[in-house]
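Problem: given the chain below (156 residues), write out its structure.
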Amino acid sequence: MSPKDIARCVELEQVLFPDDDPWTEVSFRSELAGPHNRYLVARTETGRTVGYCGVALLGTDAHPEAEIHTIGVDPACHRAGIGTLLLLAMLAAAGERGGPVFLEVRTDNAAAIAMYERHGFHIIGLRKNYYQPSGADAYTMRRPALTGSIVSEVLA
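Solution.
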């Protein structure tokens, strides 16, 4: 993701998360400026941005961890595998350092929860009223650190 992608990502945020304080241009610029953050976009063959994602690579070299900050896909492109590709790209970035990966997801987002579970995430907690202003609850999910050949498969 680059600054030129922000306007489209803000557009998608407003469509995807209208009741939960969609990210603004300032939010995206702040995330892009974070030294430990990695943000990507998915584009069509014509160059139109149809998805985005971000991960923070945190912790120390001895105790790394990652936190997925966001994944968003244009509703017109749902069920086309874009979310999975974005997730795999973030898991690859996290896998280079090792450590567990965390995220929050709305408890009513069954499709996202199923995708995360397919990629090794498990629910470890519940955050009541996490999303504002809607007050929707979120699950905290964790994927354990991958080791050895499993890392190679994720990075392949």
